Every structure is written in C-alpha cells, then in structure tokens.
Amino acid sequence: YSLVKKFYLKYFFSKINKADRIIAVSKQTKNDLVNILNVDENKINIVYNGVEKMPINDEEINLKVDINKKYLFYIGNFRKNKNILSAIKAYKRYITKNSDELFFYIAGNKSGREYDVLMTYVKDNALLNKVVFLGYVTESEKIYLYKHAFAFMFVSLYEGFGVPIIESMLYDTPVITSNC
Q: For the residues 16-29, what does the mean pLDDT come to?
C-alpha cells in the first residue's frame, strides 16, 4: 500500500475496538480482527457474502477475444497477494508440457507496477498470443466469460472471502484455487 493508504488504514483500524458489533465476511476476516487487531471475538458476527445470478445484456458483450477457444479466466486486481504471476507461470508450465490449446484471459485494470511485472513476464516468455489482458470488462462480459471458461483461476495467497470464486461457481464454472 502507499504511505497515505497505510496511514488511513492505521487510523481506520485504530477505531475498531470502539464498535459495539462488527460484521465480518468470513472466518478468516474474523480471525484477522482477533489476532492482528486484538478485537474481542464475541463482538464479531460472520455474515457470508452472497451473489445473485444476473442476466446477460448481449449489447454489452464486446470482447476482443475468441470466446470459442478453451480458456482459463481470472478477474480482479493484480496486487501481489492475488498471486497472478504464479498463476501465469503455472499456466506456462502446463502448456509447455501439453499440446492443449488453452488460453488464459485476465480481466482487470491494465495499469500499475504489478500489471507491468505481469506484462514483462508474458512478453519475455513469448506468451502474448496465449495470455490476454482484457482490461475492464462489463458485468455482462464478466458473466459471459465465467459461463464459457474451461475453469476459473483464483490462486490468491490471502483473501478475506473471495467473491469471484462463488460467482464462478454460480455459473457452473470449475474453480482452480488455493486453500487461503
């Protein structure tokens, strides 16, 4: 995080023990609040995130990729904890050992230092025709990508919950994930 963000988070979390009740989205988040911020666990209730199946607006589908190809899909940011570089390395290892025509479509903001690291790796390893950074996708495009993906790849090293995992499962797409 930037220095400004670190100061903001420190200030924000310094007030947390004054709360009467806290809603956490997972056991992991509750454990973090207890173990890192010394919050009384009896003040914390876990209320899991939910997702709702949404219709696709065909007018919003404007993808610049061949959706009929077999592909892995990831959507999210590129922070280090999301472990995208390791996912791309594992993907490279797989396609090197297999004659499978499998692509990797990655949706998320195409800017920042983390994106630059990923793009450098993709270029340096001649993966530009296999690993495609889609940038921002609409809600309908996201659903469309979930529904047609061979599998959803989400190998985060740290998550509070992991909404994209349940979104993917909602659309019957297999999930490759970590145990975090």
A: 90
